[in-house]
Design goal:
Strand content: 25-35%
Oligomer: single chain
Shape: globular
CATH class of the largest domain: Alpha Beta
Number of strands: 22
Low-confidence stretches: 129-134
Distance between the termini: 69 Å
CATH architecture of the largest domain: 3-Layer(aba) Sandwich
């Protein structure tokens, strides 16, 4: 047995075992190499009720593994001279002082300053006035309402599905074609992906049914960010798409190189976002082996695509329920083909407590969601941090403090028009300095560390987002939604 045969067998065993144990309804797994063809395995059921088995041609929802496909379209338009990575992208006005617009590259790499966003519309809940959710009109409406920057461009990496909605509008405007046509031409036809589909609430004919808790099928759903999450395809088509990126056969060498190179700062787990891919350098070789990854998880979906350009290798895994098993299957392959490979380390935990001494103050300003403005106050002057919106005050629940964050993510039981019944608010903000009319990140020294003693230069502002999120619950066992309200507060007490 070759090394690659052994690696494939190890990865396949993870998913086949999960299907046989009843953990997964159905699954598909494939490994493709430039010189060794495609190895695949399928197991379980695409439709439990009908008893329909998974095949290599069964289209699965890709969730966020759609993003490499959208990024490939952007790359093709750049190669054709229709777009340029450094061209500015205009976003709706927000609370931030006037500054430069983010570039196309920053939007694609999640460093444009947009906030958390994911919204789903279910076909059994659609009314006549929401029936356009699956059309470009829904994307335009979402961008107009929610794409208000929460941070200046380039400050921080923040994953935002809405950014890929912005990119759809940019691509359509520049090319004169719909995103459906662009994806078909530059990806599905270019690679040869006959099982692939785009933007359908239930997928192409024969698609795998998406399942939630207790194997209840999800009704069909769509989003207001299709370029982030609405591609479908079978396992062989997905791994061939990955292999095209591994061998650099779809785009120019320069564009393939850019898509697979870190653009955003490296995160605590070692990953850094490129364009449509998370990049990692792994293994024992000097400098490591570059691996490109994008996983996808949402209601009834598990998808995973990994590319190793130096080995001409692609690994794909699909299932019709949310799970972490796909990453385990891929890791089993990588451990056998990359000497010294180790899976990403868990992200370090947050630490709670009162605000950092430099942030102990009362901060006042406002929130902006669409065109709606609300007064907001953070009182961090004591041992308990409180947030007030529209005059309604609540303490932060388990505030998370890092040297460069105000309060990180914190669950808030606050009820305002920004957070309707069933929603929870998350604070996600940064300290900032006002230099003239410009906001700059608060970094007291070159390392970015904030000492325990209050430095001479203390932050003047808090900038970021308040994320209103609605989660699945026993009475609504469906994918949750989240939208971001821009937050800008100024220090009013020392």
């Amino acid at each position: 047995m070759s090394v690659l045969d052994d690696a494939f067998a190890a990865g396949a065993a993870v998913l086949v075992g999960a299907v046989e144990s009843g953990e997964l309804p159905g699954a598909a797994f494939a490994v493709a190499s430039a010189d060794g063809g495609v190895r695949h395995v399928v197991a379980g059921l695409a439709d439990v009720g009908a008893g329909r088995a998974v095949t290599v041609d069964t289209p699965f929802s890709l969730a966020s593994t759609t993003k490499p496909i959208a990024a490939t379209v952007l790359g093709a338009l750049v190669d054709a001279g229709v777009l340029a990575w450094d061209e500015p992208v205009d976003l709706p006005a927000g609370l931030l002082p006037p500054g430069r617009s983010p570039t196309l590259l920053e939007v694609a790499a999640h460093t444009a300053g947009l906030g958390t966003h994911h919204r789903f519309a279910y076909v059994d809940e659609l009314t006549e006035d929401r029936s356009a959710w699956s059309a470009s009109d829904a994307v335009r409406a979402a961008v107009a309402s929610f794409a208000r920057p929460v941070l200046p461009p380039g400050w921080q990496w923040r994953y935002s599905n809405l950014g890929y909605g912005v990119l759809q509008l940019v691509a359509e405007r520049a090319s004169g074609a719909s995103m459906d046509d662009l994806v078909q031409r530059h990806v599905f036809d270019a690679v040869g992906m006959p099982t692939a589909g785009w933007g359908s609430p239930t997928g192409p004919a024969g698609a795998a049914v998406r399942y939630g808790a207790e194997r209840r099928p999800y009704p069909g759903y769509t989003t207001d960010h299709p370029c982030a999450s609405e591609a479908w395809c079978g396992i062989d088509d997905l791994v061939r798409f990955g292999l095209a990126h591994a061998t650099g056969s779809l785009l120019s060498g320069a564009t393939h190189g850019l898509l697979g190179s870190p653009v955003a700062p490296r995160q605590a787990d070692g990953g850094a976002y490129g364009v449509g891919w998370v990049t990692r350098d792994v293994g024992a070789a000097p400098g490591g082996v570059r691996v490109l990854v994008h996983a996808g998880r949402m209601g009834g979906v598990g998808a995973h695509l990994t590319v190793v350009p130096s080995l001409g290798l692609a690994i794909a895994a699909l299932t019709n329920v949310e799970t972490e098993r796909l990453g385990e299957a891929v890791a089993a392959v990588l451990a056998r083909v990359i000497p010294g490979y180790a899976p990403p380390a868990p992200t370090p935990g947050w630490r709670g407590g009162p605000a950092h001494p430099s942030l102990r103050a009362r901060w006042e300003g406002e929130l902006l969601l669409g065109d709606d403005r609300s007064p907001a106050v953070i009182d961090a002057s004591g041992d308990t941090i409180t947030l007030a919106v529209d005059g309604e005050e609540t303490p932060l629940v388990s505030p998370h403090l890092q040297p460069h964050l105000v309060a990180g993510h914190a669950n808030l039981a606050l009820r305002t028009r920004l957070a309707p019944a069933g929603a929870i608010l998350h604070l996600d903000a940064l300290p900032a300095r006002l230099v003239g009319d410009t906001l700059e990140p608060y970094r007291p020294d070159e390392t970015g560390a904030i000492p325990d003693a209050i430095p001479d230069a203390i932050p003047d502002a808090i900038v970021g987002a308040l994320v209103a999120a609605r989660y699945a619950s026993p009475d609504r066992p469906r994918q949750g939604d989240a939208v971001s309200a821009a937050l800008l507060l100024h220090r009013v007490t020392p």
